[in-house]
Amino acid sequence: MSEMLRAPAEVKYADELDYLESVDTGPKPFSWRLSPRMVRLFVLGSERADGLEREIPQKWFGDRSFVERSIVTLASDRGLLLIGDPGTGKSWLAELLSAAICRNSTLVVQGTAGTTEDHIKYSWNVSMVIAKGQSRESMIPSPIMTAMEQGVVGRFEELTRSTSDVQDALISILSEKYVSIPELNDDNIVFAQPGFSIIATANSRDRGVNDLSSALKRRFNFVRIPVVTNKRSEAEIVRFRTEELLRRHRIELDVPPTLLDILLQSFADLRAAAASATSDDEKLESALSTAEQIGVLEDAILHSQFFGDRTLRVETLAGSLMGSLARRNPEDLAILNKYLHGVVEPRAKQNGEGWAGFLDGGRQAIASLS
Amino acid sequence: MTTATAPDDPHRTTGDGSGTAGAGVAAGPFGALREQLTDAAATFAGSADALAGILAGIVDDVDRALGERLEIFPVCHHSPASALAMVRRLRHKQPKVIYLELCEDLQPLLGELRNCRLPVAVQAFASELDGFPAEWGPLSVVAPVTEASAEYQAIAYALETPGVELVLVDRSTDHVFQWSPRDDAGPAGATGPTDDAGPTDGTGPAAVTASTGGAGEQAALHGDAVGVEIGDLRPRFAELEAYLLHHGKVRHWSEWWDQYVERPLAGADHDTYRQVMVLIGSLFRRLRPAGSDRTERDEDRERYMWTRMREHLAASGADPADCLYVCGAFHAASRVAQFGLDSPAPDFAITPRTGTRWRYGLIPSSHSAIEAQFGLAPGSVSIAAATWTKAVSGSGLTPFRLDGQRGGKGRGRRKVAAVAAPTGPMADRLSGFLAAPPPLDGLDEAELRGWCVDIVRLARRNGYLASTADAIAVFETSILLAGLRNRARPTPYDFADAAVTCIEKDVVPGRRDVRRLCEILLGGDRIGQVGYDALPPLARDVLDRLQPLGLDLEKRTIGRALLDLHATPALTGCSDLLWMLRHLLPADAVRPIMGERRLGHRSIQESWDLALGRHQRALIELGYEGVTVEQVLEQRLRRAVRGTDATAAGALAAVEDAIRLLNSPRLVDELGARAVELLATERTVDDAPEVLRRIRRLLAHHRATAPALPAWCEAFVTTGYAHYCTLLPTAFVEEETGVRQVGAMLGFLFSMESLALSLGCDRSQLELAVAQSHPESPAKVALLWAARHQLGLLPLAELRERCAELLANPLVVPAFPRYLSGFVHALEPVPGLAPFVVETMSTAFARLPDPVLLPWLPTLITTLREHGPELVPLLVREAARTFPGTLPELDAWVPPWLAPAPTPTPSAVRVGPVGQVHTLLAAHPAAVEAVAALLGCDGGWSTPQATPAGPSESALVAAHPDTVEAVAALLGGG
Ligand SMILES: Nc1ncnc2c1ncn2[C@@H]1O[C@H](COP(=O)(O)OP(=O)(O)O)[C@@H](O)[C@H]1O
Ligand SMILES: [Mg+2]
């Protein structure tokens, strides 16, 4: 299992989850594997006051009340909808929660314009139907139906991207808590077992793509996840994800703290610039989310590892940053160029440390891009 | 990740020696609090030694405070537990003297509290400073008083019980500012909006979730006053607070306090109460950053208070055993040498107050204003108030209340026998802290269910699609959340979170979001009101004088007043007062809906929206400036023209206001004279357009209303004439001076010319000034040409020729729009040029080749829009007159400037009034010539003998009678 390209949370943190389950004495709702308090502890990390022998690191960063509200929602009979800008860690939180609650975060439906009712109910294995006729064996249950049968958490990513037909089907699943299979004569109803719940995510940037009906909204509790603007938490997220990445690629590489500062600062600068821009042309296309930051660092690390001399340099970081943010030529390039000239250059002159290298690297990257 | 530097034993705490606080203390009502505090101490102490020092020190502090001969009663603001403990103590001890931590000079005001509905704030205000940097002014200090506070209990007890003396012992408001650092912007900048609240830098614990839904108005009730509060108890640096919040698993300070202190303390006895409060105060004190200004100020205040108390005891001979010293828990743990009645330390040298004249009053406050000022989470003061009400009814205690206090429920003041509180032995200092039974905290199930139903109803009324199912969900979620957060029963904070989770969706349908609705539900913002008797004389006077309107002006709603001054002339006084208030108060306080008062114009009917109740603070603060509105207005107008940044235009505005609002010729003359002085010393002409606009208006007004111009007007015209003549050549060349400004100067010079000349000015001054002007920028060149044309030095034909040359020269063509813009500005001083400007533009369009013209057009439009928006209409009107209105006409149309000079046919012209006018015109030919030139009529002057009224003149006069009449008035004829 450890050879997976990217292990799901329940695999990656199997040790921790086993340990927590072994010390958990709190009451557990339904078929939950952990009590709500332990779920919170798994997601947000342990304190000394929790009195555990083993330190549990924090995995999701943000206001604890978001996590608490999410957990109690799952213990009630409503679905949980995490809504927020892209890259705010909604999917990650959903994964962590389902891993902690039922050790299965992989029952996922991806919402797209092409998602059909089959994707959330069931479909048929055509060759088996031809051979044996329609029966429960020849039926392929969707991840959601599987979650119902097992009484675990099913996930629905990007709910607003799916069409209203799909949303309607979801309403009946969430309210009636069963799915009927009219094609079969008997054994034709799948009931949701206790513990079944749904965590959906929705991107607030493309709200209106397929606006949720009020009937569906009523069946979900909304938890809005804001963009992290606090530099310290953001630094923690980036550091956390990077360490994980290094481990995953088995890379021995140091990410110097000054470099991390430069990354965070440059994003903060660019966000401030985007906030004061008056038209879309003056704004980078990128949302400048934390996830994007991680992406930049990841790219820089991989680049240094495989094409460089295995030390992470600020020039490389600058190159990765320009490369990932310059999506439109000439608009984005112009903005980045202006940023280098107007902000980075004075800073490099003032306190050379790092920023001079950033300037060089950035200039080179822009020259090669334009 | 923040990892605490683990001490060997986190639980080895304050109990060392006494043996009562060994391991296993996590039990009991205060277990959680102890754990919180010791963890924090361990983290911030730095080393195990330092930690041991801190913990021993805390025990010392508690001993010292509790052992003091003068009983110290530590309090915390907005803490119902504190207020409840106070009630119990007062009933039991019945002290004779109460020393209170509050600015001593506020004492006389406290009696006025009974005339108010709480919360109100006691205010000290000074606008004329003496001994403080002038730029600090006005100085303002507010101390809000809420009903659910320990200090209100102490005040009410002292004022209502015969023979009890209340002594305020904290430094005076004057000292608040004396002790402010003097470096930068002002006291507010230096101390933040509050003098006493917790970390106020923006980076502080950011856990306070701002709630949308505009409570802005109520939150701004205190204006930008410096806030002081009794009983501030909050970590003194952001990291400590952040640490406590993080480890306490709560979102903001109020919630931390509620969970870890308030609820466990609710049932505590006197000793336990005091121990816990001093302990917290001591810890925060010991962990505060060393050597900050604030620390020094705190300690000076403590020295001050102890000195005052000793002085009072010595003077009054009171027995310390009968006294109670009420102060913030922070000050109870003080280490200053003056602490304690038996301290041998010399008294603190109290500096005299400055010469600043302080004025005192009460202003309305509100829960949200207090929250905003002291950095508390929105809704927390309201929740404290609700908790207080509930705790009072549950405890069987009767709180103290000032006689006649308005608002709240009129509880009877029945005397309750003193509750006998057990006085436990001192040595056993922390056992109560640990051994009391777990209190019943949180909400009753029935109460919670009620809230769930109410929030759904409230949400529906605010546009949410909420249903009974939501009420059930909120109930269930509240309980789940409380369980997750380790609380036996849900707190209001859990309830609010649950409601947000279950009801809030992606958009807020109305003005208020669910969190705000919860705040409203849990007591809502309470807004205080200052009663009539506690108002300053000016405010009472205003209310009295507006009585005839028949509105209840103390209400917080908007009242509509209708004044028919024709039918009820007696209301004129109200109208006058309203216009003055309009000038002095914020725009929303008194707003005219119909009617206006301009120079020389009063409306017969007026209607007003009055919200004086809602703007009580503004009215009260006006009362600090004077006894009547007239007096304040006069002072303000005087100040406006005397200040260092006063300008001539501003002074003219003040003159106008004085005429409009005060009808005091003496003041008008004074202000006008000042305007002349200001104009003469002005070095820039930036304000020239404004000056021109205003003086024109004032001249017209005076001419219409008085036989002769006031002396200052004449002086202004002659001074202005000389002044602008002198500055003209520089203004023409200086780059910083805009075309608009030069245009306005010329406007002044030309339109005031005849008056100025009649008052003894010399025309050659102007001619000389124009001759000395050598502008370079195209716009100003055009302006100069126009001026010379006006002076008769440049005939129209020549002007036309020059423009033609410009258009013919490809090198100059790109600059042509700027010439045009100059001409447009010339319309101000030389309105007669309008036809010519239209002509020039048309010619430009006709003559320029497309490749030049097309890119040129946008520039033209933007230039026009930028430089002369007010003159464009004039131009458009002229163009409308010039160009044909219909298509067929266009075919036959010949531009007037290409047509042969028209010979007017007398028969076609209606002959205007002749007799008198003619005599007049004949007597003053210069004026008619000027007017004719101005209006673009160059028909020539026909001899009066031949034809009594030349056809072109009479045509002119007939077409523009107003002008001639004005001229006639000007010359005193007619
Ligand atoms: N608050 C957070 N805590 C931890 N990781 C985060 C957080 N926000 C973003 N990330 C990181 O960013 C990555 C992308 O986040 P994701 O969950 O896919 O965002 P979303 O679903 O909101 O678009 C995650 O894998 C996670 O590593
Ligand atoms: Mg996602």
From TrEMBL, chain A:
GO terms for molecular function: ATP binding; ATP hydrolysis activity. It comes from the Bacteria. Gene3D superfamilies: P-loop containing nucleotide triphosphate hydrolases. Residues 79-220 form the ATPase dynein-related AAA domain. It holds the Pfam family AAA_5. The lineage of its organism: Bacteria, Bacillati, Actinomycetota, Actinomycetes, Micromonosporales. InterPro entries: ATPase_dyneun-rel_AAA, CbbQ/NirQ/NorQ/GpvN, P-loop_NTPase. This is AAA domain (Dynein-related subfamily).
From TrEMBL, chain B:
Pfam families: DUF5682. InterPro entries: DUF5682. Residues 1-22, 179-216 are annotated as: Disordered. This is Uncharacterized protein. It comes from Micromonospora matsumotoense.
